Amino acid sequence: MDESYFGGKRKGSRRRGAKNKIPVFGILERNGKVKVEIVKDLSAETLLRETIKKVKRGSLIYTDKFKSYDGLVMYGFKHERIDKV
């Protein structure tokens, strides 16, 4: 799973939450389908809600170290973090 922002003009801030950018959340099944959703924000609440709707509990989920993924284990998922250097 991963999240990103798309759109907006290149001028100005390019960091998380930059003006006029749209938050997008994606899930890739290993050797399977990609599920992408435009979301209202990238808060833990939003990302966990989308994960619960789309991923079978008990599944192993790989993410980066973004704090919004901290609660996955509490909702019954196995969770591994990958350091994207």
Summary keywords:
13% helix; 29% strand; 1 helix; globular; 85 residues; two-stranded parallel ribbon; alpha+beta
Compact summary:
The chain is an alpha+beta fold. It is 13% helix and 29% strand.
Task: Please give a structural write-up.
The protein is of the alpha+beta class. It has one domain. Helix content is 13%, strand content 29%. It is globular, with a radius of gyration of 13 Å.
Order of helical and strand elements = EEEHEE
- What radius of gyration results from the CA coordinates? 13 Å
Number of domains: 1
| Overall average pLDDT | 88
The percentage of residues in β strands lies in: 25-35%
Please summarize the sheet with the most strands: 3 strands, antiparallel
How many strand elements?
5
Helix content: 10-25%
Secondary structure class reads alpha+beta
What order do the strands of the largest sheet run in, or round the barrel if closed? Answer: 1-2-3
Which runs of at least 5 residues are low in confidence (pLDDT < 50)? Answer: none
Q: What is the terminal separation in angstroms? A: 16 Å
The number of helices is: 1
Shape from CA axes?
A: globular
